[in-house]
Amino acid sequence: EWVTSLVALEQIARGMPFGSAAFVPLANPDGAALSLREEGFSLWKANAEGVDLNLNFDALWQQVSSTEFPSYSGYKGTAPGSEPETQALMNLYNDSRYNWKAVIHYHSMGNVIYWDILGNKVQAESSELANLMSTVTGGYRLLPSEGGGGYKDWIQLSSKPVPSVTLETGKVSCPMPISEYSSIWTDNRLTWAVAMEWVAAR
Questions:
Q1: Is the peptide bond before 29 cis (omega within 30 degrees of 0)?
Q2: First vs last Cα of the chain: how many Å apart?
Q3: Which residue has the higher pLDDT, 79 or 172?
Q4: Are 94 and 158 in contact (CB under 8 A)?
Q5: Fewer beta carbons below 10 Å: N end or C end of the chain?
Q6: Sign of the Cα pseudo-torsion (106, 117, 200, 90, in order)
């Protein structure tokens, strides 16, 4: 999923039309390094400990399906929030210096948008944001999240929820080739600017 980091870096380089935004270009640097540099690890999705961070957040974690042992993908960890990468994102969101209004997550693959979770406290707002992002990206399909354990899920179930969506970019299977970047950028170059306009108008 490292290709989506380039989308964030390009957004940072171009700047925001107004207001302010915080970017985390890469939340799993060890996993990205393994998938890019180690032979036979191209499908590696987890962190260096073999924990799938997309399943490690405290959002319906007990019911999340998981492999029994650490793996390249699908192992949710020994407890919710057990991983330093998970904790870093949770700490960022809980930092009182920031007044979050919306959160967009980039993942790969599928050209789809996940926007809902059982118990979502900002369901209507997340649906509105998801539909807006679908329009901006040229028609990414909307899908509800299944299971739980993700960062978007955790935000939507938290004590201070905000509208949150996950954009799954790219049309081909992971590992996402760099050749996909041009089309991914074309689809997503306006997402943050439009999202900020949406936040400002609410």
A1: no
A2: 32
A3: 79
A4: no
A5: C
A6: negative
- Token readout for 166 is 């996950």
For residue 13, give Cα distances in angstroms to 9, 177, 189, 196.
6, 22, 12, 17
Q: Is 51 exposed, middle or buried (0-12, 13-18, 19+ CB in 10 A)?
A: buried
List the structure tokens of 9: 């870096």
Question: What tens digit of pLDDT does each residue of 94-129 get?
Answer: 999 999 999 999 988 899 999 999 999 999 999 999
Distance (Å, whole) CA 200 – CA 38: 44
CB neighbours (10 Å) of residue 179? 9
Q: If you search the block for the tokens 């920031």, which residue do you land on?
A: 98
Asked if 165 and 195 touch (Cβ cutoff 8 Å), the reply is no
Residue with tokens 């210096």: 97
The DSSP H or E segment spanning 14 is helix 3-14
Q: What is the pTM of this model?
A: 0.93
